Every structure is written in C-alpha cells, then in structure tokens.
Amino acid sequence: MTKFGKSIDFRVTGGRKLRGSITTNTSKNGAMALIASALLNKGKTTLHNTPKIEEVHRIIEVLKSIGVKVDWRKNNSLEIAPPKNQKFNLNKIDFEAAVKTRSVIMFIGPLLAHLHEFKIPNAGGCKMGNRTILAHKYGLEELGVKVKTQEDFYDISCQKLKNNREVVMYEAGDTAIINIILAAASIPKETTISFASSNYQVQDACYFLQALGISVKGIGTSTLKIIGVERGSISQDMEYYCSEDPIESMMFIASAIMTDSLLEIKRCPIDFIKLELYKLEKMGLKYSVSEKYKAKNNKTDLVDVTVKPSKLKAPYEKIHSLPYPGINVDNLPFFVPIATKAEGRTLIHDWMWENRAIYFTELNRLGAEISLADPHRVFIHGPTELKPAQVVCPPALRPAMIILVAMLSAKGESVLRNVYAIERGYEEIAKRLNKIGAKIEVIKGV
Prior knowledge:
Layout: E1 8-14, E2 21-23, H1 28-38, E3 45-48, H2 54-65, E4 69-73, E5 77-81, H3 95-98, H4 108-111, E6 117-121, H5 134-142, E7 146-149, E8 153-157, E9 166-168, H6 174-184, E10 190-194, H7 200-211, E11 215-217, E12 223-227, E13 238-241, H8 246-258, E14 263-269, H9 274-282, E15 286-289, E16 293-294, E17 301-308, E18 312-313, E19 319-320, H10 335-339, E20 342-349, H11 356-360, E21 369-374, E22 377-382, E23 390-392, H12 397-409, E24 412-417, H13 420-423, H14 429-435, E25 440-444
Parallel strand pairs: 2-14, 3-13, 9-10, 18-20, 19-20, 23-24
Antiparallel strand pairs: 1-24, 1-25, 3-5, 4-5, 6-8, 7-8, 10-12, 11-12, 14-17, 15-17, 16-17, 20-22, 21-22
Helix pairs in contact: 1-7, 5-6, 6-7, 8-12
C-alpha cells in the first residue's frame, strides 16, 4: 500500500510489443458504489473480487474510523459489517483518508438510513478544476434532506424522508445519482428519478439494491423508479460480486494500439466500450470480439477483445464524451495517445471536466504534437514517433494513466514520477503489464 507522502516512480522501457492475453480487473468506480451501498445493510455484506487499489484502501480507512468492521478475506473478498447497535461515529472520521477520495460523498445516501444528523468531509479525488456537489444537494433536498456546505464538511440533516417524489437530476452525474438511489432505498413508496445516469457503476448499485429486496425499475435507462423499505430496516447477510472495469479494458486496448501489438483482452464489459470500439474501427483499428458471456454478478455482459496491429487515420469529426451510452468520460483520455498514432489531425473535446484537457498536453514531453485550443479541447497531429522522457504524474487518474500508456510506445527509457494517482485506480498495473511483455520497474522512494 502506498503511504501518504511516499513517492513511487515507474521506470518504463518503451518500444516493446505486448503479447498473449490479459484479464480485465473489476472496477474501481463500481466497487466504490457497492461499498457505499453496503452501508444500508445492518447485516454482513461480502463483496467478492474487490480491487485492492489505493482508493479502496482509503475508503476502508474511513469506514473503520466510523465504527464499521471491514476485513479482507481470500480471493479479494471484502467483508463489511456495520457497527454494533448501528452506532456510526462520524465525529471520529478519518479526515485525511476521506479527502483523498471523492467517493466518500456517496456515504450520505446510505447513512440517512441510520442517522438523522451527521457531517461528511468535503470530497477530494482527482484535481481537475471546480467540481460542485449541486446535483447531490438538489436531489437530496427533493427527498427532504438538508445539505449545508461548510469549509471542510457537509452538514447533513433529515428527520423524515419525503414519499412519492419525482427527482429531476440537475446533471447526469454518476456519484450524484448513486447518492439519490441509496437515499430513496429508505423510502417505502415510489421515487422516480429522471435524467438519471445509467453508467456501469450506477447499474452495479441498482442490481445490488435488487439483491437486498428493493424494487428498482428502469436499470440502464435515464428514468429509474425505486420502491424502498422503511428507514434502517434492511438486515441480511449477503454476498455480491463486483463487475469488470470498462475503463481498464479501454486502457489495455490503448496499450495494444500504442505498441502495435496483437493482444487479447479478456472479460471486457462490452456494453460500456461498444461505442469506443466502433469509433476506433472507423479510425482503422482491426480487432475481433468473442461471443458474450455473463460476469459473476449474472448481470454484466462480457466479451474477449483481440486487438490487432493497425494503421490508423484521424476521424473526420471530433471525439467527445457523453453520458452513457455515449463514450465514457473516463475512456475519452485514452483517445489522446491513440490519436498520436493516427494520420491527420484529431480534435478531442473534454467538455465535462474543467481543465483536464490541459493535462493531455503533458504528452508533448514525449514528443507528441498536441495543441491546446482551450481548457476543454486539444488538437492532436499525427502520426508522431514518441520519445522517452521524465514526467511527473498529474494529480488525476486518467491523465496520469495515458502518460504511462504513451511511454510504452516511446523507444528507450522513460521515468514516470509519483504514480499514486495511477495506483488509486489500477491494481498492480506494472506487474500485470510486465506479464504481457512490457518492462516497467517500480522504484520506491524513501
């Protein structure tokens, strides 16, 4: 586990072809949604195949600090049990761990099942400009919750949740809709949520609630109808499986493209990378897809994708993300290194995140030709032959990861410094890439 303040670097020998096959791990974002959902349950929840990543370690530290019993079992199973007598002690919350992850904000919805008043630290996570909680605040207020923002905390209070409400989401945000869903689970009459995100982690939370006996209709659509149960009445021992991570699948696809490799990526959640693959196909990517099969949660459709060496061309239109079923906002950055391999000029528009596009220009240190049009748009001119360099990781997960992907292509020795941002979301990524032909040395600081 990375300790606060301890730097870990990657020394990458690029220009090596990848080979064989690699399996997609389970999802960081899905695991965060399921861990938050488990707080609804007075019984013991066991989440199988939970990724052992820094984000999960931080959220476990937060859970333990408020009285939740959390234990790792074999095969990455995470056992979560509420405090005895449901005495969550938010006054002792591990503030340092909490501000390392934005996921802690999803605790609001489930904690409403047990507490009438509490405080949650302000959300942290990636540093990519201003990120408000208005979608959380407005949605929760429609359900009778008061959210007051202090300098370091959110003050939450709710004596009684409101029944028979329609909540129109202020924006289609993933963590926001999960918060509203988990709050609605403690309302015994129907709550309708419109303009809901239907992204993979949202679906994970919805299927988990169904397993708890809560009625959730409209999963995968923009309108959800939830009939919950009495506040604090869920109490059962249950087991559930985390689902695979489409963002990791996309990362391996990008790595294969950048290294001109023939690589099989197993257990890809196809419904959440389908459009990305189609865009890449129109850019000239050659690949094949296996027949569908079910994930261990018996809900998510998986396939094995085999990427083949291809000559790419820039797309005619810009590439931009949209709420599901559009290109995932976390998959969009991987098109940046890919575009350095494509002939022509590619416009990538990252409209959702303030200033994240600025981090994309870090690939210029490796010899890319990326022009910043504004804080949301970049032009990439290709193809360019990337060169080794030393780069400090940006304080954001996906921009940091695309630098590592690009370094796999740059012939020679590169150094990526302070990779905590990457370890937040990818489990033993250097070791796993090395198994398929990469050469990444992990350098631990003092």
